[in-house]
Fold these 4 entries.
Entry 1:
Amino acid sequence: MFLSLAPVLLLAPMIAAPQASVPVAIDGPIEKLKPGEYLWAPQIAPDGPVTMIVSLKAQRAFVYRNGVPIGVSTISSGMRGHETPTGVFTILQKDVDHTSNLYSGASMPFMQRLTWDGIALHAGALPGYPASHGCVRLPLAFAKLLFTVTKLGLTVVITNDSLVPEVAPAAGMLDHALDDGHTAPTTYRWTPELSAEGPLSIVVSGRDRRLVVLRNGVEIGSAAIRLDEPITQTEAFTLRAIDAGGPHWLRLPLPGQRLSDAGELSAADRARGHLPDGFRVQLETALRPGATLLVTRDSLASSGTGSRISVLQADR
C-alpha cells in the first residue's frame, strides 16, 4: 500500500475517485495514472511545511504537507542526453508565466526553478516518457495547484530509486549514543552565516560517511558520521515536531514502499548514527519542524543521474 489520500479527487481527467479513507495502492490508481493525470487532496493536511519527491523511474511526483501525502502526479523528466539530475534541491525562483532563456523562448507556465542553469518544475507536455531537456514537466492544472502551496526554499528531492527498504537501519543519525562503547567522529564544519534563514535540508551519504546540512540550498555545515549499519537505499523523512523527547522524524513513503512501513523513527533508530558532539548541538539548535532528511547509500560528490546524489547549491 502506498499513498493515503482520503478523500481523493482525481482532477485530470475527471473519473471516479477512490472512496474516502481507503489507502491508494501503488499497484492501483497511482500506478494506473495516465500521462497528464494526477491526484490532489490538500484538505487532508490543510497546514504545515510542504515537501516534494520526484521519482524518475516511476515518472511520478509526490507532494507532502506536514508529512502527509496530499498529491501525486505523472511527470516527464529529461530525455537521454538531457537527464534530470538527482539530488536535493530547493525552489530558488517562482514565475507564473516564464519563458525559457535557453530554448528559444519556450513557454514554461508555473515555473519553479531548482537550479540557476536551467532545471525547473513547470507545466508542459507529458507524452508518457522522459522527453524534456532536464526539467520536470507537470500537468498544467497540477502545476498551477502546486504553485499555490509552495514557497521559496521548499525542499525538492529528485531520486532515481523506485524502491526503498522495509526498515531504515541508519536513518536516525541526529542522536549520539554515549553508552554503546563506540567513539563518535570529531571532524565537522558549521557556518550558518552563509545562509541565515530558510528551510533546512539534511543529506546523509553512506558511501561518503558524511552528513551535509543545507539551508535554502546553500551548504552551511558538514560532518563525518559513523553508522552502525550500512545504508542500503534512499529514504526521506520530514521533521514533524520537536519536544522534550527530542526530534520526531516521520518517514515519507517513496514509490514502492508499503504504507505499513511508514511511521516515526524510534529511539533505537536514532541511536545508530554518531556525530561529533559539537556539531550535533549546533544542528539541534537550527532544526525546525518541516526540515527534511534524505538518507542515501551513494556519494554526494557525484553528478548526473542514476542512483547517485548531487547536492546542488543555490550559488552555483
Entry 2:
Amino acid sequence: MTSADISAFVRIRRDLHQIPEPGFLEFKTQRYLLDYINTLPKDRLELRTWRTGVLVKVRGTNPQRCFGYRADMDGLPINEDTGYDFRSSHPGYMHACGHDMHMAIGLGILTHFVRNPIRDDITFLFQPAEEGPGGAEPMLESEQLSDWMPDQIVALHIAPEYPVGTIAIKPGILFANTSELFIDLKGTGGHAAFPHKANDMIIAACQLVGQLQTIVSRNVNPLDSAVITIGKMEGGTKQNIIAETARLEGTIRTLSKDNMDLVKKRIEAVVGGIEASFDCKAQIDYGANYRQVYNNEEVTKEFMHWLDQRVDDVRLFECTEAMTGEDFGYFLERIPGFMFWLGVNTPYGLHHAKIEPDEQAMDVAIRVVTDYFTWKSSQ
C-alpha cells in the first residue's frame, strides 16, 4: 500500500474519531461506513446491515471457503483530552480503545480485496456494542450472518505499549473471561444522630468491598489468575442522613471458565453474609459476560510462522495473556481464528482520555492482513 493509499484511511480514521457513539446507537458511524462502502465497485460486493452494524461480503474468483475480518464500532463514555484538532464532536464520548482505527483498517483491507480479489470469499463484520452490552453474540445469531459465516476469522486490537511495526500474539488464551458486577444494598435510612434506629448501607458497602477482595486471595489457586475490581460506589444523599441504599459497580476477570463460576459463587456467599450481618437486602446483577479470547492453536501457529518467515519489516512478539475483556471471544468459540495486538506506540493506555495511537500502524495492519489472506487463499 502506498503512502497516498494509507493517507485516505488515516482521513477515514480521523472522521470516525469525531463521532464516537454508545453500543447499539452507532447510527452516524454506520452511515459513514455505508457511504464509503457504496463508493466501491459493486461487481463483487454484497452489503447488509444488522442493527447498527454492517456486514460486507467480497466474492472470490473461485471460492472454496470464506475468511472473516471483524472490527468493533462503538466509543466510550470518556471526555477526550487529546491534542487532536479532530477530537470528538460528541461531548462525553471518545474513541479511547482504538475502534476508530479498527474500522479504518477494516475498510482498507476491504478496499484492497474489492480491487484485487482472491480465490476465496471474505466477510467483513463491523460489529457494534463491543464495550457493552455486547454485540458479538447476537450478531452471530443473526439471520444476516447465517449464510455468510466465515470458516476462519481474524481481528486485531491496538496495543499502546508496543512500537509501531510490532504484532504481538500467542496461541491459546489471549484475553480473559469477563463479567460486569453490580450489587445493590437496601437497608433502613435515618437521622445521623440516631444510628441505632437505622441500617447504614454505607458501612455495609465498605465492609463488602473489603470482603470481596479476599475472594481471589483466599479462594483462587495462586498459580491461576483472577481479578475483582470495584470501580464505582454510590450511596447516601446528605452528610447527616444515614444511607438507606448503596450500589457497587465492578468487574470480574478470570483466565478460566471454572474460576469465573467459583468467583461468582463466592461473591454470592459473601453478599449473603452482608445481608445477615447488616439485616439488609441485596441484589446481584452480573450484566454483560464475555467469553475468553482463545486463539485457535493450529491457525495461530501457522499465522505466526508465516509472519516470521515472509514479512521482513514487522516484528513478531509472542506475548503473555492479559486480563483484558473482548467479546470477539464469542466468534472464536465457533470459528477457528485469532486476534492479535497491533503496536501503536503511545504512552497512554487503552480507555485513557489522552490516548493518541500512531496512525502509521494502520499501514502495517492493512498490509499484514491482506498479504495473509492472499497467501492463505492460495494454499
Entry 3:
Amino acid sequence: MTEQAKVPAIRFAGFTDPWEQRKLGEVAPLQRGFDLPVNQMTPGPYPVVMSNGIGGWHSKYMVKGPGVVTGRSGTIGSLHYIEQNFWPHNTSLWVTSFNGNEPRFIYWLYASIGLERFGSGSGVPTLNRNDVHDLRVGFPCDVAEQRRIGTFFSRLDSLITLHQRKYDKLVVFKKSMLEKMFPKDGESVPEIRFAGFTDPWEQRKFVDFVEASGIRNKDNLQLESYSVSNDRGFVPQDEQFENGGTMRDADKTAYWIVEPGSFAYNPARINVGSIGYQSTRKNVIVSSLYEVLKTDRSCDDRFLWHWFKSSLFTKQIEMLQEGGVRLYFFFDKLQKSEIWMPNVDEQRIIGQQFDQLDSLITLHQRKLELLRNIKKSLLDRMFV
C-alpha cells in the first residue's frame, strides 16, 4: 500500500474517505492478563481465556466483553473474539478499550498484521506488546465501514467453520464405516452389508493372493522416481523432497520398477500408514527399501486399499512386525497376515463406496483450503 493511496485495494461500495494512519496502541492497546491458578478456578459461566483459547470456566470475570484476546507467551498469533465477560489469563493479552471503534473490526485488524512476527525469546516465545503498539496501521474513521468489514470476515469465518465441521464429520464417518463394513475380530461377516449379498466371507492369508512384483531397474531406465508418503501415498520425489533430495543423484539401478496397479510400502513406516497404490498409467521407480506387490484376480485392489487403512491391518502389523529399536513389517510378514474377504463383486462395491466417500472428503478439504486462501488474500487486500 503506497503512502499516497491510504485506502485498501478492495473496499465496499459507498465508502470513499481515506483511511487514517494511527499507532495501534492508540486505537486498541493490549493489556496483560491476570493470574489464576488452576486449583483456584471454581466452575462458573465465565470463560478463562489463555494463550491458545478458552482453557476453562470460572465463577468470576475480570473484564467486560466484548474483547479481543491473543497469546502473550507460548502460542503467539492465536486470536480470539470473546463476546461475553471473561477472565484473561496471564498467558494472554487482551483488548476491551476500543476508543469508539467497532470491536469486530479491531479483531480482524489484529488478524491482518500477523502478531507472530512480534514474538521474541529462544525458549517459550513471548509477544512484545510495545512493538505491536508502535505499529502504524490504517483504519476507516467511519464506524459503518468498520462494521461492514468486521461482519464480512466473521461470516467468512463462520463459513470456514461450517466446512471444517463437515470435513471432520466425514472423516469420523469414514472411520466408523471402516469398522462396520469389515468383519470385527472373531466374526465372519461385517455389521453393515449391501443388499443382495448373503454369502459368508472367507478368511484368507495374503500368501494366497499377493505376490512380490517389483522389478529391478538393472538397465537404469530413466523413469520418474516416486516416494510413498503417509497421507498421500505415491508422490513424485520432487514433490516429497525439495529438488528430489539426496535421491536425485542416487544410483537407480537397485530401484524397483513399479507397474500400474501395484502396491508399495515402507516396511519401517507401514505402522504410520506409509503405503501407496500406483494408479498412474506409466511405470515408475521407487527405492529398493520398499516392498512392492500385486494382487491376483480374486482381490479387488480398491477393497484392499481401504482395508489397509483400517484398524484391522494395524492389528496385523502389531502382531507380526519384528525388530529391536526399529520395527519392520517385511513382505514375508505381510504374506502371513490374514483378512476376511467376500466375493469379488461385493469387494468391488465396497471399494467403490469408500472411493466415493474419499472423493467427498477431498472435495470438502479443497473447499476449506480455498476459503482459507481467500480469507488470507482478503486480509491483505482489505486492510491498509
Entry 4:
Amino acid sequence: MKTIGLLGGMSWESTVPYYQIINEEVKNKLGGLHSAKIILYSVEFDEIEKCQSSGNWKKSGDILGKAAQNLEAAGADFILICTNTMHKVVPQISSMIDIPIIHIADATADELQMNQIEKVGLLGTKYTMTQDFYKKKLIDRGIDVIIPDDTDIDVINDIIFHELCLGIIKEESRIKFKKIIESLKKKGATGVILGCTEIGLLIHQADSSLPVYDTTLIHAKKAAEIALGN
C-alpha cells in the first residue's frame, strides 16, 4: 500500500472527511482491520486566507510547497491538497517536490466523463469560479463549465468563508445554494460540481435536482484507489 500525503487545514472542517472517506474506502476494499497509510500536514488557514485575499499567491505557494516537502520527507508517495482553491499554486508546489500531486480537477473530470456530463455547473470560492486554473482542466477535457452570475458568486463565497469554514451550517444558506443550482440548470447544466471542499458539508444530492459531484468525495476515493494500486 502506498502512503498518502494529505496537505490539509484549508479549512480543517473539510479535511476531516478526507481522512474518513479514504479509510472507509480502504476498509471496504480490503476488509478486516485494514486502514490507509496517511500522513497529514495541516496548515494555519488564516495565514493562507490572508495570502488569497491580498493576491499574494506566491507566498501561499511557498508555504504549501514547504509543507509538501515535509510530507515527502516523512515518506508520502503522493500528495492530495485538500482544497480546490489552492490548486491554483500546484505548478509552484510541484516544482518543489519529486512526488506527484493528484489534481482535484483531474479526478473530477474523470468522474464527469464516466457519467457522460458534458455541461456542468461549478460552485466554489470566487477564485475557483472566476479564474482559469480549475476550469481549464475541465474545458481541456471537452467539458463546458457554467458559473453563477456575479451576485450569486459573492453569496457563495461569503457562505464558504463566513459559515462553512467555521463549521456553521444554516438552512437559509442551503436554500440559497438550491436556488443557485436551479439557475445553473436553467442555463443548461446537466450536473453540478461542489468545487469547494466545504460545500459538501451543506449540500447533498437530496438538495439538488442535478447530479451532484462532490470534489471531496471524488478526490478522497481517487487517493484510496491509487494507494491500493488500482
